Amino acid sequence: MKEFLRALKLYMKVNFTPSLLAIPFFFMFLSLVFIIVSGIKSAENYTSTLRLVSQFHMGLFSVGFTSGVLASLKFFHSTKFAKLYFTKAKSFSMLFLCVIYDLVLFVAAALFIRVDLAFDMLIVNAVSSFILCMINTTLWLETKYSIYGLIPWIAFCFGGNSILEDILYGQYGFGLPVYADVAIAVGIYLFVLLLTIAISTHWWNKSQRNIVGKASQMIKA
């Protein structure tokens, strides 16, 4: 646990600086402005609100891109907790950022629009966060891994809008009770956490980095 906390602290210190979070916060600001000025008067406006707010999650991509660039530095591979840094710390940090992002939008929707929209938005945003977490985990890995993140993103960009509109066609909202909305969102978050850790751990164990990390630890010992 101590090594994990050290890895988590290092990851967040390096990747969650004010300058790197500027873009996600900018898109969060746009989402908040859109939520505040939007009035839900028809099914069309309703789906537009969900669609645009979920698509603004693209701002979180900047954090994943930067962390991938920094991950190429040898320093991070030479630490005693390198494996934890590239697997669990990376997954937990990105999910934490996404959950905070989604909760802020949830509160704004509940206050300025309608509570039922806020809970529906919780599910849609959780799906968007799922995709961003997958991209953040797989982007800088080999092609056979990165495709796991890119395919959902492409499907979301080109087919997500129509799928959402088909689901909500002729109705206002998903029509689910509050506990179901919360349970689905939490389930999505837990699933992507376990999935990203599994993918990155498999990559680490199969890559030369695992060998380098072991050798580095043997030299230090």
Write a compact overview of the structure shown.
This protein has 221 residues and is mostly helical. 81% of the residues lie in helices and 0% in strands. The C terminus is likely disordered.
What's the structural blueprint in terms of helices and strands?
Elements: H1 2-15, H2 22-37, H3 43-55, H4 61-70, H5 74-78, H6 82-112, H7 115-138, H8 143-167, H9 178-206, H10 208-220
Helix pairs in contact: 1-6, 2-6, 3-7, 3-8, 4-7, 6-7, 6-9, 7-8, 7-9
Describe this structure in words.
- By secondary structure, this protein is mostly helical.
- The protein has helices at 2-15, 22-37, 43-55, 61-70, 74-78, 82-112, 115-138, 143-167, 178-206, 208-220.
- Helix 2 packs parallel to helix 6 (82-112), helix 6 (82-112) runs antiparallel to helix 9 (178-206) and helix 7 packs antiparallel against helix 8.
- The protein is elongated and about 55 Å long.
- The model is unreliable at 211-221 (pLDDT under 50).
What class do helices, strands and sheet pairing give? mainly alpha
Measured by DSSP, the beta-strand proportion falls in under 5%
Helix content class: over 70%
C-alpha-based Rg, rounded: 19 Å
List the helices and strands in order.
HHHHHHHHHH
User: How can the largest sheet be summarized?
Assistant: none
The number of helical segments is 10
Poorly predicted runs of 5 or more residues:
211-221
Note the gap between the termini.
Answer: 20 Å
